[in-house]
Design brief:
heterodimer, A: mainly beta, six-stranded mixed sheet, five-stranded antiparallel sheet, 11 strands, B: four-stranded antiparallel sheet, globular
């Protein structure tokens, strides 16, 4: 089946630094989604991407749908302590009719 | 607030017991998904329902079952519970053609 490789698995950064994480696959996706999960809570949708090459921002977050449709990245600029959490990517294909989730990137921000 | 509700928020039970988790999707969403998340793990897809019918199955144990009712709410039934079933259980709902899923707040199940 389809698999997503999400990296890095974890990141420890200083407040104010920029963060970059990505998801790659050997499969083509029609939609890429990025979620953030805080401890004990459900994942919250951050950004949805529906077109190859699309670049979308949500505040300090920017995500791009790779031109090959096989990858996506999420950038967080000027990180703050409340950015702490697990970030998941998810890819959806019409053919499969279902979404595949990455294993998550755990972000720790040191004040 | 995603618009997806789950009850109960917490559930503590003993091994061998059976529990039912409930999920109400966002208004208008026809798809409901169930996920299991063990401590420090990713989201394990269990099962998907669409408009009352089972659409996809993931790594769901035979001791687990689910259904989606005519009003579109869904229930996940977990039976013969084991210690290893302790986890967060999330449901998500989606509508439209892009399968953009919105997650509920989860049910934390503790099996003692």
């Amino acid at each position: 089946g389809q698999q997503l490789n999400q990296s890095p698995q974890s990141m420890f950064i200083q407040e104010g630094e920029d963060v970059s994480m990505n998801c790659t696959s050997s499969s083509i996706f029609n939609t890429w989604l990025w979620y953030k999960q805080e401890p004990g809570e459900g994942p919250v949708l951050l950004i949805a991407l529906y077109k190859a090459g699309e670049l979308t921002s949500n505040g300090r977050l920017t995500a791009q749908f790779g031109i090959t449709r096989k990858d996506s990245f999420l950038n967080i600029s000027a990180s703050i302590p409340s950015d702490v959490g697990i970030y998941f990517c998810a890819g959806f294909t019409y053919n499969a009719g279902k979404s595949t989730f990455g294993d998550g990137t755990t972000l720790t921000v040191k004040p | 607030d995603s618009g997806v509700t789950q009850t109960p928020k917490h559930l503590i039970t003993a091994t061998g017991q059976r529990v039912t988790l409930r999920c109400s999707p966002r208004s208008g969403d026809l798809s409901v998904y169930w996920y299991q998340q063990s401590l420090d793990q990713g989201l394990q897809f269990l099962i998907q329902y669409y408009n009352g019918e089972e659409r996809a199955k993931g790594n769901i144990l035979e001791r687990f079952s689910a259904q989606q009712f005519p009003d579109l709410h869904s229930e996940l039934n977990l039976s013969s519970l084991e210690l290893g079933d302790s986890a967060l259980y999330f449901c998500a709902s989606a509508g439209g053609s892009t399968d953009t899923q919105y997650f509920g707040p989860g049910t934390r199940l503790t099996v003692l």
